[in-house]
Design goal:
Blueprint: E1 13-17, H1 21-33, E2 38-42, H2 45-57, E3 63-67, H3 75-85, E4 91-95, H4 102-110, E5 114-117, H5 122-151, E6 156-158, H6 159-166, H7 170-182, E7 186-196, E8 205-210, E9 219-227, E10 233-235, E11 258-267, E12 273-274, E13 278-283, E14 289-290, E15 296-305
Parallel strand pairs: 1-2, 1-3, 3-4, 4-5
Antiparallel strand pairs: 6-15, 7-15, 8-13, 9-10, 9-11, 11-12, 13-14
Helix pairs in contact: 2-3, 6-7
Length: 307
């Protein structure tokens, strides 16, 4: 059986925020040797945050090496801003301080992925990268299986629906979509436009149907019979033994005694007979109820299986 390609960690972009030019060059050169090609360096916190915004605007989240002491900002402040923008970002803190110091403990507790002691040992960088590769390989395989399982129940699907149903980012989903396309399992189709909740923008919505009079949901599709002689109009099931429920005469000849109309509905709660069902939508994420007129219409890339 053909093995699926798991996107390599080395395909990620790396952002180095480090005021020491020598340390920045050391990190960049060694990461190049480990296979990383897209590496950007900044020498202060402000430039690092702007670079992070530019990178994430392209749909990717970089791996970040962050110096604890920078001339304009501290690591705690920078990392907080990065995590607020992209909670999934992996930040590796570089510092000459001891890991046991309270300030370093605070940064690690705030969400730093790893601690890299200075002077930097290349073996430690390699160890961190190997750990990250193993973790991401497992996570990517799990996401891949989830994507394929979700897509298997449909002939076509959107990137937006996949990311929302699996609670994953486009960055996590896109490499798997690209792999399925390269293996000629799926193909990209026209953009898919979907109904979304006006409150939370979620496309996980259910269409709800109601009686237009009482708004009840207990109704069924029926054939309607109109008895010409007495003018009775009621459901076919009300004509027991072909007798009109109003005048109790037997209806005999279609077109002479009576006529029928298909595709009507009868409400079991208020007994209303109607031709058009009242419908609205329920968001399965936030429970917001809304009509089609108030729904948002969101577009995203569409894909379909190749048969």
């Amino acid at each position: 059986m053909k093995r699926w390609h798991v996107p390599l960690l080395e395909e990620k972009e790396v952002l180095i925020i480090e005021d020491s030019q020598a340390v920045g060059i050391l990190l960049k050169d060694f990461l190049n040797r480990l296979g990383f090609k897209k590496i950007r360096s900044c020498q202060n916190g402000k430039a690092g945050i702007e670079a992070f915004k530019e990178i994430t605007a392209t749909g990717t989240v970089p791996l970040v090496f962050l110096d604890y002491n920078l001339p304009d900002m501290n690591a705690f402040s920078i990392m907080t801003q990065l995590l607020n923008m992209k909670p999934e970002v992996k930040v590796i803190i570089e510092t000459a301080r001891e890991k046991t110091e309270e300030s370093i403990k605070d940064v690690i507790a705030q969400g730093a992925y790893q601690y890299l002691a200075k002077p930097i040992r290349l073996e430690k960088i390699k160890e961190i990268i190997e750990t990250l590769k193993n973790e991401e390989s497992i996570i990517t395989k799990e996401i891949f299986d989830s994507v394929v399982n979700l897509m298997s129940g449909a002939t076509q699907f959107s990137l937006l629906r996949l990311s929302q149903y699996l609670d994953k980012t486009d960055e996590e989903i896109t490499p798997i979509i690209n792999q399925l396309m390269s293996n000629k399992k799926i193909t990209q189709i026209n953009t898919i436009k979907e109904i979304a909740c006006p409150r939370c923008n979620n496309v996980r919505v259910a269409q709800m149907f109601h009686c237009p009079k009482c708004r009840g949901a207990d109704f069924k599709q029926e054939k309607i019979i109109e008895h010409y002689k007495c003018g009775n109009v009621s459901t076919e099931s009300s004509y027991a033994e072909d007798k009109c429920p109003k005048c109790h005469q037997v209806i005999k000849v279609f077109g002479v005694d009576y006529r029928t109309q298909d595709n009507f509905y009868a409400c079991n709660e208020c007994k209303e007979i109607f031709a058009e069902i009242l419908s609205d939508y329920l968001c399965l994420k936030c429970n917001e109820k809304f009509t089609l007129e108030h729904a948002k219409l969101l577009s995203s890339k569409g894909y379909a299986w190749l048969r």
